[in-house]
From TrEMBL:
InterPro entries: AB_hydrolase_1, AB_hydrolase_sf. This is Alpha/beta hydrolase. Keywords: Hydrolase. Pfam families: Abhydrolase_1 (PF00561). Residues 20-125 form the AB hydrolase-1 domain. The lineage of its organism: Bacteria, Pseudomonadati, Bacteroidota, Flavobacteriia, Flavobacteriales. PANTHER family: MONOACYLGLYCEROL LIPASE. GO terms for molecular function: hydrolase activity.
Amino acid sequence: MIIANKNSNIHYTESGAGSAIVLLHGFLETSMMWKNFIPELSKNNRVVCIDLLGHGQTDCIGYIHTMEAMADAVLAVLKHLKVKTAKFIGHSMGGYVALALAEKQPQLFSGLFLMNSTFNADAEDRKLMRTRAIKMTHTNYENLVRMSFANLFAPESKIKFKHDYEKALQVALGTSVQGYIAAQEGMKLRPNRFKVFIGLNGKKLILTGRKDALVNTEGIKLQIKGTSVIHEELSEGHMSHIENKTELTYIIKHFIEK
């Protein structure tokens, strides 16, 4: 389904009935990343999946998609669907977007699950890597996407889950150059939202992968010590929905329980 908002068509899906669950995908992904989880989650819940700006079937609105702009697009869908409160699950960039929305509309949240994500801002070296990647879009975009995507997986996962890896890679390669640049620029600009996260009402969960090179697990564990945030750690990399699907399904089902 499509709604129009701020010169952009925003694509979303809706399944099931009950308490709302909002699923937000990561960079170089689309709402289709949740496809295998929806049948189980929608048995007792209203599940809303949204293509973020410049990804999937949702349009770009410029060459910088801030996390706040992406959050506004999500909010437009939720207002259209008359969703008053929901539990949110955000994978990687989807977690950044959820946090931006939580800062604007905390009353929307009955829970937030940061999946292979973080509340921290980019370190300077990470910002530099994003800037270099943006420059590379002008020379060999396909190789850039392939390289960016490969870094999301634990090395052995690319072999063990070859079929799922290739399917997800094709989705990543479908991301437009503009969508790639705009998301990278937006992620560089995001602030630290630790206080936003710990200040939310409801369940707060953060999941990391032991072999995830993108998320500083030890730093996160230190930051959340003594707070109400629950930490879960899985054995593989950044793509838990592929690399640790069974364990992740259990964690998600436990998170959405009343």
